[in-house]
Amino acid sequence: MTPTLVVIRGNSGSGKTTTAREVRRRYGRGCALIEQDYVRRTMLREHDSGAVDAVAPGFLVGIARAALGSGYHVVLEGILHSRRYGEELRRLVDDYDGRVFHLEVSFDETVRRHRRRAEPIPVTAEQMREWYDPHDLLRVRGERVLPDSMGFEQVVTTVLHDSGLAAAAPSTPCPVRCPRCAGKV
Q1: 86: closest CA among 135, 21, 139?
Q2: pLDDT tens per residue, range 13-49
Q3: Do 26 and 36 contact (CB within 8 A), yes or no?
Q4: Which CATH number does the domain housing residue 116 bear?
Q5: Cα Rg of the chain (Å, integer)
Q6: Peptide bond just before 175 cis, omega within 30 deg
Q7: Domain that holds residue 114
Q8: Considering its fold, how many domains does the chain have in total?
């Protein structure tokens, strides 16, 4: 079975992390979640700036390739600006027939959602405006734009079904071959 690649992109505060975490939770074991902010900020301590050559784009794609190559389905999420991440992401999506979802949320709605987050990032609306890039699509085959008129449940269900994850079986050692998990599948 070929592992599934799902890429969830959008502006800060659009709901991509919450969506990706819920997609993975509903799928269960056998699905790797790769969060751009965690990799870039925590693992690499790298700023997301066009001023320097960034390690994060290649690093994120390398992690995704390693997980996919090991049989894990992958949900990769982040702002993933097409100017900095586009080339690497397009190759990854092409190589694994990935499904790309862009959460298209207005600036005012991103600010409102950001303020309601359980773990808000300490940024101002002015900083968020600097990052905001409306309709920053990868322009790959099958890229799906999900508007802010869709509710959270509808977005999660759309991602699960349109990507094929809703019907995909795990192929990784855990839970397929793991002795602790085998009896629970």
Answers
A1: 139
A2: 899 999 999 999 999 888 999 999 999 888 888 776 6
A3: no
A4: 3.40.50.300
A5: 16
A6: yes
A7: 5-182
A8: 1
Burial of 98 (0-12, 13-18, 19+ CB in 10 A): buried
Helix (H) or strand (E) holding 57: helix 56-69
Dihedral sign, CA of 106, 112, 117, 122?
A: positive
pLDDT tens digits for 77-117? 999 999 989 999 999 999 999 999 999 999 999 899 888 88
CA distance 148 to 110: 9
Rounded alpha-carbon distances, angstroms, from residue 52 to 16, 28, 46, 47, 49: 26, 37, 10, 9, 6
Tokens of 153: 């449940």
Pairing of strands 5-10, 73-78: parallel
Contact 64, 92 (CB under 8 A): yes
Q: What is the pTM of this model?
A: 0.90
Total residue length of the chain: 185
